[in-house]
Amino acid sequence: MDEKSDFCRDIFTALGLSTGAAVALGLSRFAYGLLLPPMQVDLQWTYVEAGALNTANGAGYIVGALVAAWLARRWGTARAFLAGFSVSVLVLLLTAMTASLSALIMLRTVGGVSTAVTFILGAGLVSAICPLENPRRRGVLVGVYVAGVSMGVILAGMALPIILREGAQRWPEGWTVLGVLGAAGLPAAWLAARQVQQPAGGTMALLNARECRRIAPTLIGYGVFGAGYVGYMTFIMALLQEQGGSSEQMIWFWFTLGLVSAVTNLLWGRVLGAFNDGRGPALVFATAMLGTLPVLLYPGPMAMFLSAILFGGSFMAGPTSITIVAQRQLSAASWTAAISLLTVGFALGQTIGPILAGAISDVAGSIEAGFWVSPLLLAIAACVNLLQRPPVPAESPALAGKSS
């Protein structure tokens, strides 16, 4: 009974922290896919200009990933997490107040920094809830945390289309609503962060060379995955619009994407917890790759929703999968630094993906041409992650925890 109540308490703590994931990615990053078409119409952007905002966000994400572990060591993980959360909400609200491309790029850059800090340190806090428990239980808790991103996607998908029905010029109100939704989750995140104790041994700011080599395939593969998946999330709504999708179909597509992601990510947590090498991320990335193909090969309503199910059912398991790899490969004191490093690789990919897809689309005169970048990169990411070996038994974090 005590074990069951402890597990329930851990789940509620992970749920509270998941509001940070919802703001960091669901509301701040992925909702841009819904707001991009009206902003592009109202502000008369090219595809490169539209992709540049997500590239700026990715560049800021790199900076945030680089400083996250340092901030956690200096201020404490919980305090830095909540600070990043608050700044992310403020950026959402400020984005509604300008139509200047340069100002929007600056805000997206700052938002990239704050959301990286929020997401990475939130993942570190979730990992610290039960650092020495069995891997499947940790996988479930990480899955609950990352499912917050999907909930942010669902909330954005419910709120934004209602506002945008009144015209493309209403996009600023969309950003305001996103900011208000984010602010509503701050109390839950604050309460949850107070419940988590730091891992024994403190939080390392950087990994040593041996630890970097140990997770190198995961780092490279996650970077390529970042480039592939963000191209899909940036331009999918514009592609569906070009293919003749109705407003109602695209609303249901987005809702399906978020709902399937939320449900399946909880299942992925248990599945991925069973792997101790790179097969978990490889499986996730390969499934996401398959999810990009229907809208390219067979445009239409059936392909749209098949893509939502396959891609939505896998793309947010990417962070879950690499977090579990870091937990398996390294000691608890290294987790935040490892997640930071992996997120740097991921963010580097995210800066390349949107601008590359946008440039190809502009040259070809069709968004579909640039969209092919996504399945190609996702396939490469899956292959690279198969090179990740299991942890060395003598250096296993679990054994280290027992010996201490």
From TrEMBL:
TM spans (from-to): 12-32, 52-72, 81-107, 113-132, 139-163, 175-193, 214-239, 251-268, 280-298, 304-326, 338-357, 369-387
The keyword Transmembrane is assigned to this record: yes
Domain Major facilitator superfamily (MFS) profile: 14-393
One family name in Pfam for this protein: MFS_4
Record keyword Membrane present: yes
Keywords noted in UniProt: Membrane, Transmembrane, Transmembrane helix
PANTHER family per the UniProt record, alphabetical: PTHR23537, SUGAR TRANSPORTER
Protein name: Major facilitator superfamily protein
Organism of provenance: Alcanivorax xiamenensis
